[in-house]
Amino acid sequence: MRSVLTSSLIALSFAIAAPALAKTHGYDTTVSAPLTSAVKIEVVLSEDMAHRANNLPEKLSDRSGARGFNSGFSGNGFYGDRDLERLTERLHSKFEKKLSKKGIEVSDTAPTVLRITIEDAKPNRPTFNQLSKEPGLSYQSFGNGGAELQAELIAAGGQSLGTMSYQFYENNIRDAKYGGTWGDAHRAFGRFASKAAKTLAN
Amino acid sequence: MRFSKLTLIAGVCALALSGCQIAKTSGKVAALPFKAVYKTGEFAGKTVYKTGELAGKSVYYTGKYTGKGVYETGKFAGKSAVGVGKGVYYIGTVPVKITDKALDTTAKVLTVTTQAVDVSGKVVTTARTIQSSELEAELAAIKGVSNILNVVVDAIT
Asked: Are A47 and A189 in contact (CB under 8 A)?
């Protein structure tokens, strides 16, 4: 009787923890059917990211306690238009490469659209715009980076075929000072592209 | 005649024997200082030799230990960056490294490079240019601040 009770309690706790465990994995999708037709890739920035190109985040909680109005690196803002453009280009090329590798045709004229949104991205080192905004800031500064991404597969008629999301934020600062400006964000792009291509191919 | 010959031979022999005795005696006398000198020389030589050997050993081991010491110091210095070494002072718990150029007090303008950790865990390095007369006030301001990792004061050349 006792063993049955114990095993049922363990099973119940696993059932409760399952969504949380799945969430820590970082990747989530609702796409059920494989993609058979050609697809067009669109990469866009979220409203918040577009705002942060030349401003600090609107929410004070996103500023990581930065006190200065020009401290973009500490406050997760002032990324600069050029850096964000490069991020979108990189994500686009990453998806193009991974989908082609899985046999999915990528075309700019395809009726099916894969719209990828960069919800959040954090650099490991100050961007050029952040350095120019805060002259005392050194490029030797470093921190943990990462990115949060969402993608939606939209059919020709406009109906959604499913969504995919992924987030990766590095939590160990040990290697942060050896990487480039967007090292962890680029890693997130690569991983999301791989996982999304696998989902769309199968 | 024959007796006189014998007497002469005996006298010569006696003289010769007595001379040998003298020679033997003087030989002993001469031999003693020689031996003493020899022994002294031997002991001195040995002492010198041993001393040299010990000195050599000492030098060798000293060198070895010195080498080790230098290596370890370098290792620790490398790890803690500015934690140990010349020109490192502590203001509160913050290590402040002042370079030789800044220490000779001829420079009027200094750069203060501060490495600090912010709330999100980012290590932010900022450099400020100050007048040398402001240095004391600048360093006094970091006393009691807990998020500063280290400060480097350098002179602008």
From this structure: no
Of A134, A136, A143, the CB nearest to B122: A143
User: CA-CA distance, A80 to A133, in Å (whole number)?
Assistant: 10
Instruction: Check A73 against B122: CB less than 8 A apart.
Output: yes
A62, A70, A130, A140: best mutation site toward chain B, by most B Cβ within 10 Å? Answer: A140
If you count them, how many residues does chain B have? 157
Phi, psi of B153 (to 5 degrees): -105, 125
Q: Check if A137 contacts B (Cβ < 8 Å).
A: yes
Helix (H) or strand (E) holding A192: helix A183-201
* Strand bridging mode A146-154 / A112-122: antiparallel
* CA B139/CA A112 separation, integer angstroms: 62
The reply to whether A74 touches chain B by the CB within 8 Å rule is yes
| DSSP H or E run through A118 | strand A112-122
State the sign of the Cα–Cα–Cα–Cα dihedral B96, B100, B105, B111.
negative
Is 0.90 surpassed by the pTM of this model?
Answer: no
What pLDDT digit, counting tens, does each position of A106-145 carry?
A: 999 999 999 999 999 999 999 999 999 998 999 999 999 9
